[in-house]
Each structure stands twice: as structure tokens, then as C-alpha cells.
Write a structure and sequence with these properties.
Strand content: 35-45%
Shape: globular
Largest sheet: 25 strands, parallel
Mean pLDDT: 94
Structural class: mainly beta
Number of strands: 57
Low-confidence stretches: 1-34
Length: about 675
């Protein structure tokens, strides 16, 4: 409790209950103190000690709204796709009617906050705006203007902003009618809006001064929105702006730090001279308007810090489209095309990129960072509202991406696409992607010897937290993946999308997933928190899954699967699980729906909702047993793997009932 609050409470006690001299402000603050609750700091809605040493080390502290003081309504938990709780961190949030509030108690000194929220879409799409009042210790501090312009997608891939749209693909099978609508007579009636998703957005706010641990941040909804959902608050103590000495300040070249005038020409002039002089380019505090790609090669660009320097762009329609198929452009820093030799020695640090991407158009190059960059570094960026935060088209090598925050993307946060080698993605925080959080996609040319390490990926609303599509000798280690929503899961190893085969080895080591093992709506089954998918070819590399924790999996912890048309063509072999902890599954530890086999050693499980091994093989059910073999290498505890299941007993239950597990706890 702060000294100011102690004085207020003491004054009220001294005056007595019946004394009317206490002001309305004093009484209001006293009530706020009475309702304040102790701060509960979490990581991915878990107690931090449960994920110690895993995920990104970030500057902010995260608090879930459902743990704060509120007169609103807690929604969730719910993991059903197309619902507001399902896309919330921890699958729970707080819904405010106009005038209601949620109040957080600061766990540490802070001068800036991030609010993750949702408000309704406009009836015909396109988003709405609404104020959110921010008070600190009972005093109005600021008004945030919330927007849903970057949220609310509908329908089938690649989605639409129109809630009233008919099916984008009436010739696709859909679970809603268990049919292909265009081949169904009479045609089924599809409820609109069809499959709403991508509900949340976030905003950052500087508070103007430093507030102390124990002070309160109250967020109050207004009547401009029918409802306001608050998911979480991040609080942070932002340091002073960084000044890069012996650098070229873009203002000297005419860049406008107020954001009113286009700064792209000035930035390009500064880059040209900086390359000649071999000095950095400096982006001072301010907002710089950039509405096209800035091509970077052999240059360092340094901002004052991603809270202080913002590079902001608007979407620009291209007429005619660009040769690469883009129909829009927007803000982004791009290496040269790999076909032109790519770029190298690019170093970007300490600024934010704010895009204006509101729809998914896969041909558009509207990413925050793009092109090919070898022997480069990207650090301390905040990437927001672009299509993909960082999409690299190789070949390229030797690049490090670390200490970045990538949120509210229409598609991936980062993708190593085509021939990316010897590169590292480390200590990045990712939230609310519209596709894979972090991916290596070896399309056409192999990715090799790359590392995804100590990253946090939260709430990808489609696809996976971390995905490997082909590759040689790649590593996924010490990451934290939470709350994938649909058509993907926590960690994925897939021979699909035309990827090159897995060769050599893949190390998947010391990662934690929580509330993964999601629903695959096309198959109408639950996936595993980690899942292996043989669609285009066999998976037969040496894949070692060691020291991982799979917590509170909605369906299975582990899945091996192929698609029905290729179930007798492709297999998955060479995978070994060692030193694994599984705490809670809605169904099984292992679901096998493919030919092949797996080895388990020192894999312990508890709170398992169904049979430990759900072995369907490739669904031919021969008299010799399943086409999938399970090998017990010893030390597997918890009763989930019993001798009678080995090596290939058919235990197939296509869609077992889900038994929600208890919350994860100390092992």
C-alpha cells in the first residue's frame, strides 16, 4: 500500500463512519483500496515456477484479468474454437459492460502498460473504435482508443473481413454439416457470421511517470462499445531513450519525427550515406511514416528503443500489381531478393514497426521484415499489425533474430522459408498470430542447422506454435508454447506443403506446451500437443524429443498421423521420446493414426483422461496387430504404458470422450 493510500484510509478511520466531510474522491479511493487484490504474475497464465528456464525472458510482467479485481464477468474457461475465451490467454478473460472495470495491482514499478482486449466488429465488418479509461490509483490518467479494425476474420481460408459473406469455398468439406455444401441437396444453411476468429488486439500506453509496486491500474469500459473484453495487462518500466553516437540521424536528411510527412526518402538517403561512411543510421524518438519497403543491405539501423521509436505505415494498393503478385505494399525493411544475391551484414535494432494489414492476401509482401539477409541481426523490435513479422526467403545463412516482440499478425510471426541455414531465433515473444508462430519451411531447398531457442509463443489462432516442415539437423529448444486454438497445436513436425524430406536429425529439447493438443476441424478429431504428420512423404530422420513437458493438453499429448488417402503409403519412424513429463491430457498420452513406430524412455504421465495409448495404426486392423509399434525402453511411469499394449496392440477409439484434466502443478 502506498503512503498516499495509507493517509486516505487513516483519514476515513479518524473521521468515523457517519462523518460526511470525507470527499467523494476519498470515499471512491477507499472503496478501490478495499477491492484491490494482490497481484498475480503469470507466464502463459501459469505460475512462473512451472515454466522456469523456458520461454523468452522479457521486460514486462503479465497479469491475467481474471485474477484482478473486477465488477465485470469472467468468461471461460472454454477451448471451443470461434469463442472469445478460447482465444484468450489461459482460455479465460473478463467481459465488461459499459461502466464496468477491471483493476490490476502493479507487481513492480512501471511507467508503461500493454492491454490485450477485444471489442465488437462493425455489423458489416471493418471494425469499430471505443474509448477505454485508464486510471492509476483512482485518478484518470489516459484514455486509450481501442479498435477492432485489425481483428475479426471470418469464414474459410484465407478468410474475409465480411461477417455476412457466403462460404468462400462451397466445394470444401466442412464439419458444420459433415458435407460438401455444393454437393448437398438441398444445400445446408450455414450460420453467419461463419467461423469468426482473431478476436483480440493489443495496445501499448506510456503512463507519463513511474508508478510504484502496489499502485492500481483500473481499466473502465465506456458506452461506445456494447462490451469490452480484457484478457491481460503487461506492465513494464521503460528506460530512457537510447542515443546512438557516431551515427547519421535521419532528421538531418529531412525525416519528420511527428509522422505527418513521408520519411521513406529521407531514410533511404541516410542509408546510402551510412553505407558509404560505414556508420549506423539513427532513428531518434518519434513516429516516422513509411509506406513502402526500405531495402537494406550492409547497413545498421538503430532506434531509441521500441517504446520510443515507431516506424508506421499505411496499406497502399498497387495498380498494377507488383511482379511478385503483391496487390498492396506497406511498411517493411527488406533484404534484396535471394535471386539478386540477397543482402548481408544488416543490423536492425531498437524500434517498432506498426503496419496496417487487416486482411490475409497470401501474394502480398506486407511483412515487417522480409527478403534474404545473411550474417545479420534483428534485435529489440516490436512488430505489430503486419502480415508476417519476419518472413525470410532464402537461401541465406548466419542470421540471428532475438529479443523481439511480435504480436497481432495476420499470418506467421516468423518463417524461415527456403534454404535458411545456420541461423538462430532466440528469446522472442510472440502472441496472437493468424498462422504458425515460428516456422521453418524447407520448400524447394533444405533448411539446415537452425535453432529456435527460448522463445514464447502464445495464442496462435490458427496452425501451430512452432512448426518444422522438412529440414536437416535443426533444433527446437527451451521454448514455451501456450493456447493454440485450432487446426494445429503446440509443436509440429510435418512432411507437407511441398517441403524437402527430414534428414539427419531434429532435436526437440526441453520445451513446454500448455493447453495445447487442439481440435482439427477438418478431421473432427483432437491433435497432440506435439504432433507428427506424414502427408507428402515418410518421416524417417532421427528425431529426438527430450526433456519436454506437455501440460494440460486438451486432447492428446502426442500424436502421429497421416491423411486418409495416403495412410498406406507413408510412415513415421525414428522418433524417440526421453525424459518427458505429461501433466494432464483430455484423452490419451499417445494417439497413433499412421504406420511406423516410436520409442519411449523415462516418460512419466499423470492425470490422463483416456487409455494411455490409442493405437489405430493405419486403420486396416490386421490380425498381426496395429501397423504402428510402440517400444518401451524403460522408466516410463504413471501406468499409461502397460505391457499388454506392446508392441502394437490395437486400442483404437476414433474419438474418445474428453476428460478435462486438473490444472498443472509441481511434479
Amino acid at each position: 500500500m502506498t503512503w498516499r493510500r495509507l493517509l486516505v484510509v487513516g483519514a476515513v478511520v479518524a473521521l468515523g463512519v457517519g462523518d460526511v466531510a470525507a470527499t467523494a474522491e476519498t470515499r471512491a479511493e477507499t472503496r478501490a483500496v478495499a477491492r484491490a487484490v494482490a497481484p498475480v504474475v503469470t507466464r502463459a497464465a501459469l505460475a512462473p515456477h512451472l515454466v522456469a528456464g523456458r520461454g523468452a525472458d522479457v521486460a514486462f510482467l503479465e497479469q491475467e484479468a481474471e485474477n484482478a479485481a473486477t465488477n465485470g464477468t469472467v468468461i471461460g474457461p472454454d477451448r471451443t474454437a470461434y469463442t472469445l475465451p478460447a482465444e484468450a490467454s489461459g482460455r479465460t478473460a473478463v467481459r465488461l459492460a459499459p461502466g464496468q472495470h477491471v483493476e490490476f495491482t502493479l507487481p513492480a514499478d512501471a511507467n508503461a502498460v500493454t492491454v490485450r482486449y477485444s471489442i465488437p466488429d462493425a455489423p458489416n465488418g471493418g471494425g469499430t473504435t471505443a474509448p477505454l479509461r485508464v486510471a492509476v490509483d483512482g485518478e484518470h490518467r489516459a484514455t486509450m482508443t481501442l479498435t477492432s479494425r485489425y481483428a475479426w476474420l471470418y469464414n474459410q481460408y484465407p478468410f474475409t473481413n465480411d461477417p455476412n459473406a457466403d462460404l468462400l469455398h462451397p466445394d470444401w468439406w466442412i464439419t458444420e454439416c459433415a458435407c460438401v455444401p455444393s454437393q448437398t441437396n438441398p444445400p445446408p444453411v450455414i450460420t453467419k457470421p461463419f467461423r469468426p476468429t482473431h478476436f483480440y488486439d493489443e495496445q501499448r500506453l506510456r503512463l507519463g511517470r513511474t508508478y510504484r509496486a502496489g499502485d492500481t491500474i483500473r481499466l473502465t469500459a465506456t458506452d461506445r462499445a456494447a462490451w469490452t473484453v480484457i484478457d491481460l495487462l503487461g506492465s513494464e518500466l521503460v528506460g530512457r531513450p537510447h542515443v546512438e553516437k557516431r551515427a547519421l540521424d535521419v532528421r538531418l536528411f529531412g525525416a519528420d519525427p511527428t509522422g505527418r510527412r513521408d520519411a521513406a526518402p529521407a531514410l533511404e538517403r541516410a542509408i546510402a550515406l551510412a553505407r558509404f561512411l560505414n556508420v549506423p543510421v539513427y532513428l531518434p524518438p518519434g513516429e516516422f511514416q513509411v509506406n513502402r519497403h526500405i531495402i537494406v543491405d550492409d547497413v545498421t539501423i538503430v532506434g531509441a528503443g521500441n517504446w520510443h521509436t515507431v516506424v508506421r505505415g499505411r496499406a497502399v494498393a498497387l495498380d498494377p500489381p507488383a511482379p511478385d503478385g503483391s496487390v498492396h505494399t506497406g511498411v517493411g525493411f527488406y533484404g534484396r531478393d535471394a535471386a539478386d544475391g540477397g543482402s548481408s551484414n544488416v543490423h536492425l535494432r531498437g524500434f517498432a514497426i506498426e503496419g496496417d494489414v487487416r486482411e490475409r492476401i497470401d501474394t502480398d509482401q506486407v511483412n515487417g521484415i522480409g527478403g534474404a539477409m545473411s550474417d545479420s541481426t534483428i534485435r529489440d523490435l516490436y512488430l505489430h499489425h503486419t502480415k508476417v513479422g519476419l518472413w525470410f526467403d532464402g537461401p541465406m545463412s548466419g542470421t540471428v533474430v532475438e529479443d523481439n516482440i511480435i504480436t497481432d499478425q495476420i499470418a506467421d510471426a516468423l518463417n524461415f522459408h527456403v534454404g535458411v541455414t545456420d541461423s538462430v531465433v532466440r528469446n522472442n515473444f510472440v502472441r496472437n498470430t493468424g498462422d504458425d508462430g515460428l516456422a521453418m519451411w524447407a520448400e524447394h531447398q533444405q533448411n539446415a542447422r537452425n535453432v529456435f531457442d527460448h522463445n514464447t509463443v502464445q495464442t496462435p489462432v490458427l496452425a501451430n506454435g512452432i512448426a518444422l516442415y522438412g529440414g536437416t539437423d535443426n533444433t527446437v529448444s527451451r521454448n514455451l508454447v501456450a493456447d493454440p486454438v485450432r487446426e494445429g497445436s503446440g509443436i509440429h513436425v510435418g512432411s507437407r506443403f511441398g517441403a524437402r524430406p527430414f534428414t539427419g536429425h531434429a532435436w526437440i529439447t526441453d520445451n513446454t506446451t500448455v493447453r495445447a493438443g487442439t481440435y482439427e476441424l477438418n478431421w473432427n478429431i483432437g491433435l497432440g500437443a506435439i504432433w507428427f504428420y506424414a502427408l507428402d512423404r515418410d518421416i524417417d530422420a532421427a528425431i529426438r524429443v527430450t526433456g519436454n513437458h506437455f501440460l494440460d493438453s486438451t486432447y492428446n499429448a502426442i500424436m502421429f498421423v497421416s491423411d486418409w488417402p495416403v495412410k498406406d503409403l507413408y510412415s513415421i519412424r525414428g522418433v524417440r521420446f526421453t525424459d518427458t513429463r505429461i501433466d494432464g491430457t483430455g484423452t490419451s498420452v499417445l494417439s497413433a493414426r499412421v504406420m511406423g513406430g516410436v520409442t519411449f524412455e523415462n516418460t512419466d504421465a499423470r492425470n490422463v483422461g483416456a487409455i494411455g495409448v490409442n493405437n489405430c495404426g493405419s486403420f486396416n486392423f490386421p490380425a498381426t496387430g496395429s501397423e504402428f509399434t510402440v517400444t518401451d525402453a524403460g522408466g516410463n511411469d504413471g501406468g499409461w504404458l502397460l505391457p499388454w499394449m506392446l508392441p502394437n496392440t490395437v486400442t483404437c477409439d476414433d474419438r474418445p470422450p474428453v476428460v478435462p484434466p486438473p490444472p498443472p502443478s509441481e511434479w
